[in-house]
What we know:
The protein has 3 domains: 1-51, no CATH class; 59-173, Electron Transport, Fmn-binding Protein, Chain A (Pnp Oxidase, Chain A); 179-284, Thrombin, subunit H, CATH 2.40.10. It is 6% helix and 45% strand. It has one helix at 268-284; strands at 3-5, 21-22, 28-30, 46-48, 68-70, 85-90, 99-107, 111-115, 118-119, 122-123, 131-138, 141-153, 159-163, 168-172, 179-189, 194-202, 206-211, 221-230, 233-248, 257-264.
Amino acid sequence: xxxxxxxxxxxxxxxxxxWRLYDRNGYVVFARGAMVERREQLEGLLRDxxxxxxxxxxxxxxxxxEAVPVSGFPPAGIKPQxxxxxxxxxxxxxxxxxxxxxxxxxxxxxxxxxxxxxxxxAPLILADGEQLEVRMVTGSxxxxxxxxxxxxxxxxxxxxxxxxxxxxRMQRLRKSPWAGVNLSAGASNAQxxxxxxxxxxxxxxxxxxxxxxxxxxxxxxxxxxxxxxIDELKTxxxxxxxxxxxxxxxxxxxxxxxxGVAFNHVSxxxxxxxxxxxxxxxAEGDPA
Length: 288
């Protein structure tokens, strides 16, 4: 899962979203196809840049394409706590819709207890035997499992017993946070082509930038140079990078391509600068 900040200008208002939007904990905030009405709802949201186009045939675990089986529920070393927030989706309904619920507890090898999702303040109508997918984010991992509803209960509150999961799958979130930035950079490739680029997302191990298509294709190497300022400190970072992908840039930057790059052999000093820049921009918000 490659979660990166989405510039607010790239998110259509009043139109179906072309992708899911997540918060920084990896929870779905807006499903694909949902409509956002106000830009105030969009601060700090991210999208999965590596998610394939989603269809009803995209598989039981949706965009968790790299998820691997782990040991049962709860996974080794993980102790889910009552009241912990999890997300569910109904596998026989719209796979793009996620509901936020809370873990009540679990009985080893018997059942998992969750609150019933609410829609406009009312419990969602469900049925015994209905199949669910449950997701929870712990640390830097997403855990997911599927189970059927054993029993729906209404007292003392609306909750449900799920079958104890036979398999839990895990996928790691990115190890480095990303921040939206708006930095001018010089970019040059091994053939000596030099271009002015615009960094739009930055992490300690890579970046997303807009530049002319002449810089190269996936697998090519680049040299990036840009000025960095943190409080009263200033420096120029010169970084080697490898192009991971090249896509068409948003309509707002015509004639440009969007590059995803990974940094190579970053020195300890440059790594500290990158982390400082990322956390400063996260704290201040996307300047774009």
